[in-house]
Amino acid sequence: MSMRRWVACVGLVVMTGAVGACGAGPTTDASGTPTSGPPTSADAVPTDTSASPSGPTSTATPAVLSGERQVTIVRVQSFESGLSLTDEGRLAETVDDSGRQLFVPTPNGETYLIKAYYGGGRGSGTKPVCWQVLNPGNSRPLVVEGADCKPDEPRQQFTVTAAEGGDAETFLISSGGAYLRTSAQHGLILEELGHAQPESSFRLVDNGPAPAGG
């Protein structure tokens, strides 16, 4: 470095206190090894600020849909009657204790078999029958009948989903896109809704452990 440049550098240091303003090289440690100055923005290690992907949120299956509890089923809009698979083999609403009024929704893949039992102690050891969609023809609506339980039978595969705005015991029941609802003319029927909202929702009321051997 020339004498003129050295004098200029000394003056600059005195006025500004700037170190390294004269193009000085890297400093050395006690061993004489060059050391680098503080990292610049180009040297900084990038920080990954993206959020870690969260895993799927698991939703616990309600106990009444576990296949281990028996329930009574009451239409929310009904005041007194409950569902019964009558001795004539048709799902209906009734105000007495006739027919099979205890049900066990049993997981069957992504759907449920809905097994029906007699109450009053008659359900224990009794072979259940299952809900099955029946098309009576003659332009009449679909209804639910009782049949021997067959998990592979599509007409016995029902979907049970939480009703929007309902409590933890309130559900919609459907099969193949047709929803269970009440009809003033035909009683309980299954009907495709198109763009309409379901008209009937159902409360599944826990009545204890399911019958053994069902």
UniProtKB/TrEMBL annotation:
Compositionally biased region (Low complexity): 46-63
Composition skew (Polar residues), residue ranges: 28-39
Record region (Disordered): 28-63
Keywords for the protein's UniProt record, in alphabetical order: Signal
Signal peptide from the UniProt entry: 1-23
Signal keyword on record: yes
Recorded superkingdom: Bacteria
Identification of the protein by name: Uncharacterized protein
